[in-house]
UniProtKB/TrEMBL annotation:
Belongs to the binding-protein-dependent transport system permease family. LivHM subfamily. This is Urea transport system permease protein. Gene3D superfamilies: ABC transporter involved in vitamin B12 uptake, BtuC (1.10.3470.10). Keywords: Amino-acid transport, Cell membrane, Membrane, Transmembrane, Transmembrane helix, Transport. It comes from Cupriavidus gilardii J11. InterPro entries: ABC_BtuC-like, ABC_transp_permease, ABC_UrtB_bac, BCAA_transport_permease. One of its GO terms (molecular function) is transmembrane transporter activity. The lineage of its organism: Bacteria, Pseudomonadati, Pseudomonadota, Betaproteobacteria, Burkholderiales. One of its GO terms (cellular component) is plasma membrane. GO terms for biological process: amino acid transport. Coiled coil: none annotated. It is a multi-pass membrane protein. The chain crosses the membrane at residues 12-36, 48-67, 73-97, 109-127, 152-175, 206-225, 237-259, 271-292. Its main location: membrane. It is found in: Cell membrane.
Length: 304
């Protein structure tokens, strides 16, 4: 094997890591918004990702059977629908369950874990236990070869572009919109935010729903790199919590940095060792760094 081949393999593994990075970042962004705003540990976050993934599959099936001529165009529209459905589900869950459990972290954790199991069973009952995959548009198939021996999947490029777009929108919304101002005021000092007229309960609900909607977009991205089953979301929840903890809770910049580091470490090490050992290596490095820096890569402001 020549040096050129080794470089190309390393680049392709690195790009495979970017696809994983995209899913982890979208999952982590939603969790960071929810955890940073309300301190809620949402164990059902992975199921909101699954809602997004199943939305893509069902719209793909519907388009293929009813309007096959629209198959090249359905995917961007389906991503928007995935966000909306996950957003609505998150809004309802916050209204029906989460709002009654604020400042009770253990109860919230157990309740959302129970919700996670209930949603998984609902997926099995109404959609089926088998894993499914959508029919992707033709323009997302194939690969781009910028150099001989280097093939980069086009669907991976699309997922990366989608992730960058969503991250940019979240950053702009958090620092340039009225909602973002209310979120930052509530995180900084909830009592004072209430005193100056901010409806913190409504802010909490909207924030939780937006976080869940972003998880729905993560599910849409996931369908381009894997098949979807009832437990697909739960397979990513631990990694997503690692991203948030390692980056620093409530720090969006930390979430981006830790998602990139975790995905690249795992992907590149998988080329040299088995997948399970790569996960062990990644986790060991995270634990070691957190022992040195317990607050994560970027220290977060604590709400009073």
């Amino acid at each position: 094997m020549t040096l050129s081949d080794m470089v190309n393999i390393g680049l392709m593994q690195g790009f495979a890591g970017l696809s994983l990075f995209s899913v982890l970042l979208l999952m982590g962004l939603g969790l960071a918004i929810i955890f940073g705003q309300m301190g809620v540990i949402n164990m059902a976050h992975g199921e909101f990702m699954t809602i997004g993934a199943y939305t893509i599959f069902m719209l793909s099936t519907l388009t293929e059977s009813q309007w096959p001529g629209l198959l090249p165009f359905y995917f961007p529209f389906a991503i928007v629908v995935a966000f909306v459905l996950a957003f609505v589900a998150g809004w309802l869950v916050e209204w029906a369950l989460i709002r009654h459990l604020y400042r009770r972290p253990l109860d919230t954790l157990l309740a959302t874990w129970g919700l996670s199991l209930a949603l998984q069973q609902a997926f099995r009952s109404f959609i089926g236990p088998k894993e499914v995959s959508p029919t992707l548009p033709e323009w997302m198939m194939g690969s781009w070869a910028p150099a001989e021996g280097l093939d980069i999947p086009i669907n991976g490029l699309f997922v990366m572009a989608l992730t960058l777009l969503v991250t940019a929108i979240v950053m702009l919304a958090l620092y340039r919109s009225r909602w973002g101002l209310r979120v930052r005021a509530t995180v900084s000092n909830r009592t004072m935010a209430n005193a100056i007229g901010i409806d913190t309960k409504r802010t909490d609900r909207l924030t939780f729903a937006i976080g869940c909607g972003i998880a729905g977009v993560a599910g849409a991205a996931f369908t381009t790199i894997g098949s979807t089953g009832p437990t697909s979301g739960s397979l990513y929840i631990v990694d997503a919590f690692l991203v948030v903890t390692f980056g620093g809770a409530a720090s969006l910049l930390g979430t981006v940095a830790s998602a990139f580091g975790i995905a690249q470490t795992q992907s590149i090490s998988e080329f040299f060792i088995t997948g399970s050992m790569a996960k062990v290596l990644t986790l060991s490095l995270i634990v070691l760094i957190l022992m040195i820096r317990p607050q994560g890569l970027f220290a977060a402001k604590v709400r009073h």
